[in-house]
Design goal:
The protein is α/β, with parallel strands linked by helices. Helices cover about 35% and strands about 15% of the residues. Helix 14 links the parallel strand 12 and strand 13.
């Protein structure tokens, strides 16, 4: 019984791995100069942050087929800050008539005649991405499916199997190797510096409060509007702030978040004893994305849940403590190393549940996050910033083993669905 590709590939591709990409796709793109490569990814900017090298690799590998990203409007500040060259179609579907908005978006994509359509929706908005893929008019449509016969695969010419036991970055690596691109997670991202105006603004905001000679920690207690189960309890953040301010008299904490998260930050600051409160600066809702980037570059450390600002801190190599529960570090962080970071995670049977279950089994009572103790977080911060305590003795610190996925090695087949020859 012989295995062969579902869709015709080049004759040399008897094993679906291509060191320089699949020749048939490369030839198809070369025959369509000027027609773009459309990538659909509706996600938060923390996820898109890790995809920026992928877009850069698309641009350099296929210079005659510029990439176009279809994403959520809230990602505009991050993309304009880091990748102003990237053409973006911001999805803005009206709440009252979402079907009409989806149809309008599909027509928009069809008019630009994409040479290649890449659907990176893996967990959410799969119906919308299927619709866009199916009616894009692109001759090549690549994406991920869990089951080969699910309706989503009908919108794809090259369906890849999505293995939920691997991080999304590894899935992107599959497409990268298929297209002959460098694998993004195997190289450290290189980001531009924040504008001088943002750095000047942040320095001014910090000087408006007493400026201690010691360290500054950015504390972001928030998560995105979705999956609030990832948020560590307010009481735990308050106790952590109190403990570390008490133990380090020259420390300052800066609270951050977007405008609609001011109440949470205000609550944390107001519950801190008055004698420590002057060393807490609340900048929630007062910073643009560029300002946040500048603040992180000026600070000594970062503490927060699994959210966009944590991933920006990690990308910049800032000492950071990340708190995980509904998401597992293995499935979020990929194979990159973060020598200046510690990740706290308490294993529970129901974790990870995000993107694994239809609804959180806990019903929002995130025991996995509540299990992380303020004492453990304080010890982790002290180990990173003051060098106290041995890492092996820190409670609840998740240790990343050497995960080198065989799919990243030359000669190992990709997970492109193939067809059995029943003859």
């Amino acid at each position: 019984m012989e295995l062969r590709p579902v869709f015709p590939l080049s004759p040399a591709a008897h094993t679906p791995f291509f060191e320089d990409g699949d020749p048939s796709i490369r030839n198809s793109l070369e025959n369509r100069p000027g027609q773009p490569i459309v990538v659909v990814k509706f996600s938060g900017w923390g996820t898109l942050l890790g995809l920026l090298p992928f877009f850069e690799n698309l641009r350099t590998t296929f210079p005659d087929n510029p990439p176009i990203l279809v994403t959520n409007p809230e990602n505009r500040p991050m993309i304009e800050h880091f990748s102003p060259w990237l053409t973006v179609v911001y999805r803005d579907l009206p709440q009252r008539k979402p079907a009409l908005g989806a149809f309008s978006l599909a027509l928009c994509l069809r008019r630009i005649r994409p040479a290649l359509f890449i659907d990176l929706q893996i967990f959410t908005r799969k119906t919308l991405s299927f619709f866009l893929s199916r009616f894009s008019g692109s001759p090549i449509r690549i994406g991920f499916v869990v089951r080969k016969k699910e309706i989503r695969s009908l919108g794809l010419t090259h369906p890849f199997f999505h293995n939920r036991h691997f991080p999304a970055s590894t899935a992107i690596g599959q497409i990268s190797r298929f297209l002959g691109l460098p694998v993004p997670e195997e190289t450290d991202p290189s980001f531009s510096h924040p504008p001088k105006e943002s750095e000047k603004k942040v320095r001014h905001l910090l000087r408006s409060r007493p400026l201690p000679s010691g360290k500054t920690i950015v504390l972001n207690p928030n998560t995105s509007g979705q999956s609030r189960e990832r948020r560590w309890p307010t009481e735990s953040y308050t106790e952590t702030a109190r403990m570390i301010l008490e133990r380090h008299p020259d420390l300052r904490i800066v609270l951050t978040g977007v405008d609609n998260e001011r109440a949470l930050s205000r609550t944390i600051r107001e519950r801190i004893p008055a004698r420590y409160r002057e060393r807490m600066t609340d900048l929630t809702g007062r910073l643009s994305f560029s300002d946040l980037h500048a603040l992180l570059r000026l600070c000594d450390g970062y503490l927060g849940n699994d959210s966009g600002p944590l991933h920006l801190a990690l990308a910049e190599g800032i000492p950071a403590v990340g708190l995980f529960g509904p998401t597992h570090p293995d499935l979020i962080l990929g194979s990159r190393r973060f020598p200046k970071a510690l990740f706290l995670y308490e294993p529970h049977y129901c974790s990870p549940c995000l993107h694994q279950a239809d609804v959180p089994p806990c019903g929002g009572d995130n025991v996995c996050m509540q299990s992380l103790t303020p004492a453990s977080v304080v010890h982790a911060l002290e180990h990173l910033l003051w060098g106290t305590g041995e890492k092996s003795r820190l409670r609840q610190v998740w240790s990343k083993e050497d995960h080198t996925h065989r799919a990243a090695s030359t000669g190992v087949p990709l997970a492109l669905y193939r067809q059995r020859d029943e003859g």
